[in-house]
Every structure is written in C-alpha cells, then in structure tokens.
Amino acid sequence: TEVKKIAVIAGDGIGPEVVNEAIKVMKKTEELFGLRFEFEEGLFGGIAIDEKGTPLPADTLDMCKRADAVLLGAVGGPKWDNNSKELRPETGLLGIRKELGLFSNIRPAVVFDCLMEASTLKPEVLEGTDLIVVRELTGGIYFGEKFRRQGEAGEEAVDTCVYNVTEVERIVRQAFEVAMTRSKRLASVDKANVLETSRLWRETVNRIAPEYPEVELEHVLVDNCAMQLLRRPSSFDVIVTENMFGDILSDEAAMLTGSIGMLSSASLGEGSYGLYEPVHGSAPDIAGKGIANPIATILSVALMYRLTFGYHEAADRIEQAVKQVLDAGHRTGDIAVDPSKAIGTTEMGDLIIAAMASS
Ligand code: NAD
Ligand code: IPM
Ligand code: MN
C-alpha cells in the first residue's frame, strides 16, 4: 500500500490529548487493513507562539503542504487571550485554512440513538437527526479588514464582511453536491433581510439552484435557523452558510448530538486534500486532566479516510466501533448521565481500538 503522509498539528489544551487517541486509531487501521501512514508533527497555535514567536511557523505550514492530509487538535487558551492579533493562536488557525485554500468546512451532526439521553433536548425532537453544516471557511467577517480608529465618541473598532461571487459560488456548489449524495434537501442560511453579503449569497444560490433540480432548496434567515434547529432538527439535511453563521450554528448543532465532544469536521478545497479537526476548541477548563472526549477527533479520522483517501472500509470500522462502545454504555464526562461512572480520554480510545479489532 502507498504510504500516506499525515501532518499532525496537535496544538494546545486538550488538542494533544485527543489527537493521541486519533493516531492510535489510525495505527490500528494500519494493522487491520494494511494501510500505511507516515506521521510528522509540527508546532502550531499557542505552543508555537511560545517556542517560535508565531502561531503558524513557516516549517509547520510547509509540512502541511507536503502532506496528503492534516490532522489538527485545537488551539488557544487563557495564556494568549490578551495577545495582539498576530500573536494569537486563533490567527494561526485562520492562516492555515486560508494558506491551504480550505474554503469548505463540512461538519456532520449525527444523533446516536444511545446518546439521546445525553442531549439537553427531548428524544422525540432528536429522533432521526442527521445533518451536515457546510460552512464557508476562508471569507466573510473573519477575513475582512479590521482596524481601530478614533471616532467622535471615542475609540471605534471596525470588522468588515466581504464576499465575492466566486467565493459564494464554489461553496454553494459543494453544498449542492453534498446534498445530492444524501436526502437532497438544502437549507441556505443567511441574513438577506439586513446584510448585502447575504443578498449576494441568496442571489447566487438561486442562480445555481436550477443546475440541481432534484434538490429541494429552502432559504432560512439565520435567527430563524437557530430556532428551527432546536424545534425540528431532523427536518434538516444539508445546511450551507457563511463563515460566522456556520461557526455558531455548528456549535448549536453539537448539542443535538449530546456534546461538542462528538462533532467532527473536514476542511476541503477543490481537490481531495483536507484538514481534519474536531469542531471543539482547546477546552482549557478540562485540559491536562485526561477527561476530554476523543470521539470528535476519532470521527474526523473517519472523515479523512472517506473524503481524502477513499478508505471506506476502514472508515466504516471506526464509526461502527464508536457506536459499539457507546451502545455498551461507555461515556466520557461530557456525555455521561452519571458522571461518577465516566471514563477518561485514553480509556475511551482503548475501548474504541478494541472494538475495531473485534468487529
Ligand atoms: P471549547 O470548545 O474549547 O470548550 C467549550 C466547552 O466544551 C468547555 O466547557 C469544554 O470543556 C467543553 N469541551 C470541548 N471539547 C470537549 C471534549 N472533547 N470533551 C469534553 N468536553 C469538551 O470552546 P471555548 O471554551 O469557547 O474556547 C476555548 C479556547 O479554544 C479558546 O481559546 C478558543 O479560541 C479556542 N477554540 C479553538 C478551536 C479550534 O482550534 N478549532 C475551536 C473553538 C475554540
Ligand atoms: C472553530 C473555531 C474557530 C473559528 C476559532 C478558534 C478561530 O471556533 O473552528 O469553529 O471560529 O473558526
Ligand atoms: Mn467554533
């Protein structure tokens, strides 16, 4: 088998803890399926600021460019929260997405039946929920010009939100393509009643829609969508939206599954190259305690296998093993109904690996 190069950028807080478990899972698939990986690690985020003076060192970026796929943990923490923009871990994250051209962020939220009790929502509302948020990742207010200035009433801060038609077209096309592989329902989420970028977004969606006549399209205003996600989550299939709305709605969607510790993601460009990371952050409140849920990162590996490498059998095995372990009642603290019975990060990883070998 061809050796695939994996760039590993574990980052800060629980990042290294959950990435460790994901690597264990990948090594298990080498054993079980004859896959072959070469792992290379790079400094990224807060730890890179401390050791190299920048959140995205050039050698880390080069390593990612040379790799076939990137596995990322999380970045950030209180230590760097008051730093200027250039010396923030989050700036490294935005930089790597932009530099690698990863404009499309796929965030699936699937409700495991056995985890319904872990959600704060009622089981009858959650039943059958299986949706994907397709989030635009390299444009919008995150990347527009930002500055401070003196205004008449004192200091002002400005964030600009810009989208060009090409940026909207490519993400909308990807979302239609994703919808075609699923139940063929697409909700485009915007704030077209107020924002000019949203009006361009909606016009573009409507122009592309006739290319996909089989897809049932609805436009939903973002505030209404935030509400509908809790009212009728199972009626959504694919949600496509701009960068900041997608950030917020995907964390909301996480709670449908029981925990943000369950949500995986893939960041893609035009080709099959991708960066894979959990949706959650560095969780400073639980970092170093060995109690973080590694499932989001482990499920991100399954996404990597499907979307970058086409290793579907191995991806199936990982997803089945996760389900099997959850069905057997094993829980990390974030999804535990009885926290006194919660297991730790490495125990969860070990159980998943054991289930992979036995199924
Ligand atoms: P967070 O996602 O790190 O944590 C939110 C809450 O969820 C916390 O209570 C945390 O303990 C819990 N949580 C998150 N992941 C978990 C897991 N795997 N298992 C169990 N519990 C989990 O969000 P935050 O607290 O708003 O941000 C913390 C830092 O992370 C900030 O510096 C932020 O900028 C950064 N962040 C980074 C990323 C990323 O690297 N992709 C994403 C989000 C936030
Ligand atoms: C995410 C995170 C990042 C984002 C932050 C840390 C910059 O919240 O990946 O969802 O907003 O994109
Ligand atoms: Mn986020």
From TrEMBL:
Gene3D superfamilies in the cross-refs: Isopropylmalate Dehydrogenase
Domain (Isopropylmalate dehydrogenase-like) ranges: 5-352
Top-level taxon of the source organism: Bacteria
Transmembrane parts of this sequence: none
This enzyme's EC code(s): 1.1.1.85
Marked site (Important for catalysis) residue numbers: Y142, K191
PROSITE patterns: IDH_IMDH (PS00470)
GO molecular function, one term: 3-isopropylmalate dehydrogenase activity
Assigned keywords, A-Z: Amino-acid biosynthesis, Branched-chain amino acid biosynthesis, Cytoplasm, Leucine biosynthesis, Magnesium, Manganese, Metal-binding, NAD, Oxidoreductase
Catalytic reactions on record: (2R,3S)-3-isopropylmalate + NAD(+) = 4-methyl-2-oxopentanoate + CO2 + NADH
Cofactor note (record): Binds 1 Mg(2+) or Mn(2+) ion per subunit.
Record-linked Pfam families: Iso_dh
Binding site for NAD(+): 77-90, 281-293
Pathway assigned to this chain's UniProt record: Amino-acid biosynthesis; L-leucine biosynthesis; L-leucine from 3-methyl-2-oxobutanoate: step 3/4
Binding-site residues, Mg(2+): D223, D247, D251
Cofactor section: Mn(2+); Mg(2+)
Family statement drawn from the similarity comment of this UniProt entry: Belongs to the isocitrate and isopropylmalate dehydrogenases family. LeuB type 1 subfamily.
Name of the protein in its database record: 3-isopropylmalate dehydrogenase
Natural source organism: Marinicrinis sediminis
